[in-house]
Amino acid sequence: MNKIDRQLAATLRQPAELVESGLAPASALGDLEKVAARYAIAVTPDIAALIEDPDDPIARQFIPNVAELIEQPGENADPIGDDAHSPVPGIVHRYPDRVLFKLVHVCAVYCRFCFRREMVGPGKATALSDAAYGRALDYIRAHREIWEVILTGGDPLMLSPRRLAEIIADLAAIDHVKIVRLHTRVPVADPARISPELVAALRVEGATTWVAVHANHPRELTGDARAACARLVDAGIPLVSQSVLLRGVNDDAETLAALMRTFVECRIKPYYLHHGDLAPGTAHLRTTIEAGQALMRSLRGRVSGLCQPDYVLDIPGGHGKAPIGPNYLSHANSPGSELDQQIRYCIIDYCGDVHFYPPKA
Ligand code: SF4
């Protein structure tokens, strides 16, 4: 058994395994089993090693909680409206110039806040058949406006290097596809999987590969995770980050600033900080939008521009992402000026102080 197979075999998937490993108390077994009957569980050895107590920021992301069985009004099995924009199985075409290509329904770990939690995991949707894969490629070929294909799922880096190389070559062979982007949790959840073979599989003539790394707490960027990211960047693959704002995980200014700085230290450009989607049973992990905006203001005052992600919300119903960060610009009369009656720009600096800027004459 190679190292990757050993990691897969050692991944904890059953409630009893979580209890036996000390990641959950025995008294929680009944509740864990109720959650497991509805949602997938997977905790890799790398992630298990980071969990120090049942309520720490890593445990909150991966160890099931009975609160997941409580659904709030507005929560929805398809919170970002993938289905409404799926012209053929596997493809989500929401914006003109890009599509999501959902190849697999499995992940290295199952995040308790996942916005596709009703679709990922064993027993949920099935992987694309060869025929469905062909129809998805035909769709991309027929739509010349598609410049970027985003491989997501599930986690596309769960595919073998050989299969990934075939898929990326198929996409790069389409003239108008210039960018192939992969969204993944693997560099932090199972860094050994980012092998030289896998890295080589991601590079292709004819298209540029980008990788978006999902991590939510600075402790996830362990030495092994950093080395995995470095293997990708050293091969010329640019990395961006994706994080979800999560209560009790990263909803404090210090942790969020440390997370963004850690990304930049790993040559990962902070890209998105997602407001929690309305996935069923995830209210206990969501913050308010006001809290998110206050955190973004605090980030602006604490860390460099390189470390600033966009705070975004996927509008329920499939209407796409909208930036929901704080606004620093408004209009006002400038007091004491000879232009008292003239509307001027009013700008808030990183300390919260207000300044005026004249309109264009
Ligand atoms: S890795 Fe991504 S798709 Fe998989 S469970 Fe986590 S958030 Fe969902």
Structure summarized in a few sentences:
The chain has 361 residues and is α/β, with parallel strands linked by helices. Helices cover 29% and strands 18% of the residues.
What does this structure look like?
This protein has 361 residues and is an alpha/beta fold. 29% of the residues lie in helices and 18% in strands. It has 12 helices and 12 strands. The strands form 2 sheets. A 9-stranded mixed β-sheet has the order 1-2-3-4-5-6-7-8-9. Strands 10-11-12 form a 3-stranded antiparallel β-sheet, with no helix packed on it. The N and C termini lie far apart (72 Å). The model has no long low-confidence stretch (mean pLDDT 94). It binds iron/sulfur cluster. Iron/sulfur cluster (SF4) binds at residues 107, 110-111, 114, 116, 120, 154-155, 185, 214. Iron/sulfur cluster binds next to loops.
What attributes does this structure have?
361 residues, alpha/beta, nine-stranded mixed sheet, three-stranded antiparallel sheet, 12 helices, 12 strands, binds iron/sulfur cluster
